[in-house]
Amino acid sequence: MSEIIDRPLVLRQTTSVIGASIDVLDWDTALQRIKSWGSSRESRYICICNAHSVVTTTNDPDFYSVVKNADMATSDGAPVAWLMRKMGSHEQQRINGPDLMWKYCTEANRQNDWPAIYLYGSSEDTLGILQRKLKSEFPALKIVGAYSPPFRALSQQEESNILRDINDSAAGVVWVSLGCPKQEKWMAAHRGKINAVMIGVGAAFDYHAGTIVRAPLWMQNSGLEWLHRLCSEPRRLWKRYFVTNTIFIIKAIRQLISKN
Question: Which InterPro entries match (predicted)?
Fold first, then answer.
């Protein structure tokens, strides 16, 4: 990717994807928003929305509210970007979590005025591998903390401790890897408490650490990354992809028909 050039942030523009408000933007705009908010340590959160996410907004009112009130919601998933293009956002790209995180780290490594990052989520083993990988690939990247939360609700003291650790670290960006919809609800609950931009990136930690193998580039570019994930974890993901993707297709067709 060519070097990001600082430029004024454009006004926010969104479009409806089966009822979910998704931002119309390109990679540079997304990265510049994160840099700007993170540099000011503004408490904001960003949702990375694929077909599963937007379908979940239709049957989970709390999650719908979380996505609606996000400071930015990007078009993760080829079906989401495709529908946005069909609805008039003709140049809309797929702004997915793993690539957004990697592009951010690339720019933060090139330019020392990009905010430091904090890693929240996944397992301790994965976090350890991920930090070593990022430090190797991006030696100038500032990683100021990492935390693997337990698979249970945090106690009040644990909650206070982690909030203090994140805020005291001076991180401007917190990458959150808890899975959907847990990570989105966690970020929404902590806006106003964490002085940084929170970005929910799903399996990005595992992808970049290499604990989960990501789909080949040709599958990513062909909109078939979901098929690779399904084949990798069929028991866990079959319902997400067969059921929610079918629902997405039906609702997308209805939206396109109503447009015409």
Answer: WecG_TagA_CpsF
Contact 20, 49 (CB under 8 A): yes
Task: Name the pLDDT band for 11 (thresholds 50, 70, 90).
Answer: confident
CB 3 within 8 A of CB 107: yes
For residue 207, the model assigns a pLDDT of: 92
State the sign of the Cα–Cα–Cα–Cα dihedral 104, 105, 109, 115.
positive
DSSP 8-state class, residue 240: I
The answer on pLDDT for 230 being more than 70 is: no
- Residue-wise pLDDT for 186-214, tens only, equals 999 999 999 999 999 999 999 999 987 56
Task: Judge contact between 43 and 87, C-beta under 8 A.
Answer: no
Q: Cis peptide before 150, with omega less than 30 degrees from 0? A: no
Distance CA 139, CA 133 (A): 10
Q: Where are the domains of the chain?
A: 14-209
DSSP H or E stretch at residue 176: strand 173-177
pLDDT tens across 42-75, in order?
A: 999 999 999 999 999 999 999 999 999 999 999 9
CB-based contacts of 44, cutoff 8 Å, min separation 6: 37, 71, 72, 191, 197, 198
Q: What angle is formed at CA 175 by the lines to CA 173 and CA 178, rounded to 5 degrees?
A: 150
Query: What are the tokens at 257?
Result: 């028909």
Residues 6+ apart with CB under 8 A from 65: 188
Helices (H), 10-154: 27-39, 51-59, 61-68, 78-86, 97-110, 124-137
